[in-house]
Predict the structure of Major facilitator superfamily (MFS) profile domain-containing protein.
Amino acid sequence: MEDVNEFRDGVIPIKPNPVLEKCIVFKVYKRRWFILFVLCLLNCSNSILWLTFAPVADHSAQFMGVTLDEINWLSMIYMVVAIPLSFGTTWMLDTLGLRITLVLGSWLNMLGAVLRFVGIMRNLPSAANFPVVMGGQTLCALAQPLVIFTPTKLAALWFPEHQRATANMIASMSNPLGILIASIFSPMIVGTTNNIPLLLFIYAVPAAIICLLATVGIRDSAPPTPPSASAESSNSEPFLEGIKLLLRNKAYMILLLCFGSGIAVFTCFSTLLEQIMCVRGYTNDFAGLCGGLFIVFGIVGAGFLGLYVDKTKKFTEVTKVNMSLSALGCIAFSVVSQMRNQGIAVAVACSLFGFFGFSIYPVAMELSVECSYPVGEATSAGLIFISGQIQSVIYILLLQGLTKPMAYSPFSTCSVGGDAALSWRVPVLVMAGLFSVFTCCFIIFFHTKYRRLDAEAQAVLHSDKQNCTPLSRHHTDNTGR
């Protein structure tokens, strides 16, 4: 028994598309949930591997005999690698399909996780530990764009119109769930620096299992019958032509710049949280708790938003309101994180920042498709991710450059010692200021029509004129799919 959802086809308002000028019955398949499940696991695992070392940066630096800046590069390599590869990834998703992209991503993720574990084995010279771990981290970084661009594409190809935002939300929020796991469990596992090998082994096992699930379980890139009118023409624009259309789209370019800045701020927060807080006397465990609250409340907020926008389609309004509130949360964190003995205030600020900030991501990805249709979903969502990665590298380097050594830091819990403690007062204020500026620009200048929804509405009207007869939503599919 298969769920069936029928839409009527019409004409895309931007460019006529003959695919949408005929009456077609659209269907949804139960196996879409399995593909979504595998994508969630893969996205979660990749983000765990991304931020494995950030919550225990000081311990990791001691274990491998490197500096904190070098440990930060284990996170930043994700951004550096993603920038040049993202264009190829968007082309791969829109041209070669979902299955090849996900299977390749799962293999790179697994091989990188295994190589990281091999890199800290005792039979290797100590000088080789960090380079080999960095090599494994680089393989994991190669997998990230293959994974993180996929939710919007999966939602468009496999899910009907009334489930797209929810499916995108579920897949997208698996990424911060991985950050949550790393934030909580890395400090718990690494009680002492001797537990770094155990940490890498534990994180490698799920990566291998997920690789098996993706390779064996995902058989098709798209369903035999599309679930919606827009899915029927998902790749209607060639890749290079789609890029040209996006560069000429004012609303999209504003979203690209402003929301990319938001992604950069969230990346800085996740990467540098432990270093920012340990100087003020907060422990690694408490920093992990704050990172966990940031993610948990973000997932909760995303759940509400996903259901809300699926019913109301108020993508723009929701994005503007939440960006404003998350900017306030970022300002609050930048102030209270520089105060001692303010654990409750810091935890509340992190929770609010996550609730309003992380929850925007899936909605903004859907908004990028709505304002850029009929450009391929991977292309429109992927360029925003590239913007976020480029700005993340710039922001992290900028914030690190603005730190100043503290001559006296008796309350520091950073295990590198008080002499090496850095003041983050100016960097966190600059981070909040940048986020606030780009949020104001987005609120003032961003306006768009929902092009994909308009195309589907015209599809219904066109098909009604042809007297197309809808099927029951509980029609039996004799194909057995």
